Amino acid sequence: NAGVTQTPKFQVLKTGQSMTLQCAQDMNHNSMYWYRQDPGMGLRLIYYSASEGTTDKGEVPNGYNVSRLNKREFSLRLESAAPSQTSVYFCASSFTDRTHGYTFGSGTRLTVV
Amino acid sequence: GQQLNQSPQSMFIQEGEDVSMNCTSSSIFNTWLWYKQDPGEGPVLLIALYKAGELTSNGRLTAQFGITRKDSFLNISASIPSDVGIYFCAGPTSGSARQLTFGSGTQLTVLP
Fold it and tell me: Mind telling me how many Å the CA of B74 is from chain A's nearest CA?
């Protein structure tokens, strides 16, 4: 019963460095999402993938890229990290009918110095 | 864009007390979802509501889908220390077939 698995759990980057956050789900969900969570701002959608082979921008996509590698995996890449990207990042997945809610991973806490 | 307004933003209560929080929207929702986020973890779905006026319970938690379809309420009875966390409401994003819009959350602290 792994659900949604995110790696790494913690990461510190220097400004300008790049990194990829990994996410995998084993629930046969069609859709996957990347959110960032900042104090007082709730959850903001960065990118999502409605199905394998498609990706779309969310509310705050600037500075990020994504890849839906296959049905299970959806990665988030920071090409040139900035301090403003210091945040907690959550991956989530759902069936096509999102009214039954998302399943979230446990998050990646990223600090950019 | 669509916004969900949650209140209060934070609450400090004594163990054993009941808690009420709500979520309002400027637009109509057909589904309301309530999530809880434990410290250091991702949000977990608590209750889903699909019909105006619906009242649904999950243990000590009870949620209601407002009659106007623009609001929802979550109540926690007889709070315990493990109720600590952030509670989010969410609903389907207007104009999107896939996305959910989340409220900004209510931070709950339970004092012994």
Answer: 17
